[in-house]
Amino acid sequence: MARTLMYEAAIVILHRVKRASHLKDWALAIAQRAGPGKARVALARKLSVILHSIWRSGEPFRWSGQPSAA
C-alpha cells in the first residue's frame, strides 16, 4: 500500500503540482533520459527516502530545501 501511495504521489508531483521544486526538476531530467516510467519510480523512491528521514529526525519538511533561520 505504501509503495502504491508513493507512486501516486510521484505522478501528482510530475503532472499536477505547478510550484517549482528541485524534486520535480530532478525527475523530469530522468524522464528525458530514461523515460517517464523510470522517472515516476525514481521519484517515488526518493519521496520514500525523504519521508523516512523526516520520521527519523522529527524535523518538519521544508519545501524549498533551504535551511530555516531558527
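That was protein one. Protein two is written in the same sequence-then-structure order:
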Amino acid sequence: MSPHTTSSPQLLDVSSPDLTHWLELPAHQSSVRTARRSMDARLTGWRLPRDLCADAVLLVSELATNAVRHTLSARILCGIGLVGDGRVRLEVHDHDYTGGRLPRCEPGPDDEGGRGLLLVEQLADTWGVDRSRLTGGNAVWATLTA
C-alpha cells in the first residue's frame, strides 16, 4: 500500500490549541473508542460539515487501530488540526522504531479486518507516513477537505 503522496506537508503544530487537538493514549484497543469520541467532539466544535467529521473520525479510528495492533508501542498520540479553509489534517504517532514499511494487505471477502489503509486511501485527499519528531516512531497522516 503506498501513500497518495511522496512527500509530507509539515506535521501538525503542537503549540496551537485553537487549531489543533492532541490526545495521548495507552496503546490498548479501548483507547480507539476514546480517540473517536474526543476527535468527534473537537471536530463538531469547529463546526465542520458533518460528512467531513464522520470521515475524519473514521480515519483516526483506523489509524489508531493500526498503531495499537501492529506496533509494540506502549502509548499512541492522536492529533487533528485545521490546516486551511475546510481542510483537516489528522495524525497518529506511535513508538515503532523499526522503520518498517506498511504491509500490502489484500483482505478476502470473509476477512473481518485488513481494510483500514484501503479506507484511508479512498477517503483521504492525501496521506503518508513519516518519522515522528514527537515520538521517534511513525507518524501516519491524512488530509481531508470539505
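The radius of gyration is 14 Å. Keep this in mind for the problem set.
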